């Protein structure tokens, strides 16, 4: 028996990869910058770049655009066909999208959205002027216009803002053969369709039927006898974070969205949820360092300065307060210079411990695992951890301080200050994010700024205060 040939694997050469295309585009652009060639050379360069980007997926085209300075980015953007502009706009970052939209007139933007689905247009709408959104709505046919207006009606952060309208549903009074015949009418099933939704005569959700079960079932079997009535469904007004947690918890691929009468009005897919989670995580990462929104690395100095300025101003204020705490003990520092060398250690260790606690609380808030009673238990636990770490590492630092300066009292002050500041850090690490959550603010944004202010100020105050009392 002749063995079957091994399957052939297709490898992507570096020159064919997105990175290879990016490097090729950069070489062409750099050549245009080195010297101004005749129009024929520039036309040849434009054709070469156009051919390169036409072979790429819209996400890879977006990657190329994000890596180019604004002037070169706009030149490459002008070489992209209008039929692909909408797909690329969906893939680029918000900051880069702003530069591309600013280079387009209203008619070009409307034309770029003609082939997009209602939910995709709704994703772009927040970045578009109101008059352009209205022009896009008017350019849709009746059905698409209704879907677009529905998609635009849901605020950001809700399931409605994530859902699409490509629903595949089957009535519960047909057999498997009729269901399969219905599915064959589609040119292709919508992406991430792992099951069809089962509905009654009025379109109300009854359950779901996995495609793999439908395909292997007897054609004469009624759908009503094999579908799963236990299905995870969402309302359009539901919180998107809760939906993301449900997708993770139940390993969902696709889930129906139902209205107040339990009628299926749309669906949410795992790729949309992943995009939402990724965007939120990126916003939180930027927020931790004081950036209000995603920043284009090639934006102007003035634009970047405006984006970074407010939190720097807040940091300046908190640092000034901390410096005034130190200033209140100038006399003590003047009498014992060792205090100036040791006090940053107390503040730094407290900040590190507090950040560990804050990270734990922010994660628990995101997962919805913290309530009033669990917060008390977490506080008791974190205080216990801080007391233990403070006793152990405070003792170690106390010994080190004694060894360096041959002063037993200084070592004792160092150990006690470390213990107390770690306890303060535990309190701050819990209450800062909880307070921000209570006042409707994202606890991941700015918590570290306030935490550092508390641990620095209190660390200086505790250490220098104890030193003033026991050493001077």
What is the total tally of β strands?
5
Major β-sheet profile: 3 strands, mixed
Largest sheet, order of strands side by side? 1-2-3
Structural class based on helices, strands and sheet pairing? mainly alpha
* CATH architectural arrangement of the largest domain: Orthogonal Bundle
Q: Give the helix tally.
A: 20
Mean pLDDT: 85
Could you give the order of the helices and strands?
A: HHHHHHHHHHEHEEHHEEHHHHHHH
Beta fraction: 5-15%
Helix proportion: 55-70%
Q: Taking Cα atoms only, what radius of gyration do you get, to the nearest Å?
A: 30 Å
- Specify the oligomeric state: single chain
Query: How many structurally independent domains?
Result: 3
CATH topology category name of the largest domain? Tetracycline Repressor, domain 2
Question: Could you say which overall geometry the principal axes of the C-alpha atoms support?
Answer: globular
Low-confidence stretches: 1-15
CATH 4th-level superfamily of the largest domain: SLC41 divalent cation transporters, integral membrane domain
- End-to-end CA span: 95 Å
**CATH class descriptor name of the largest domain:** Mainly Alpha
Can you characterise this structure?
- The chain has 472 residues and is mainly alpha-helical.
- The chain folds into three domains: 147 residues, MgtE N-terminal domain-like (MgtE N-terminal fold); 102 residues, CBS-domain (Roll); 171 residues, SLC41 divalent cation transporters, integral membrane domain (Tetracycline Repressor, domain 2, Orthogonal Bundle), CATH 1.10.357.
- α11 links the parallel β1 and β2.
- α7 packs across α9 and α18 runs antiparallel to α19.
- The protein is globular and about 90 Å long.
- The N terminus is likely disordered.
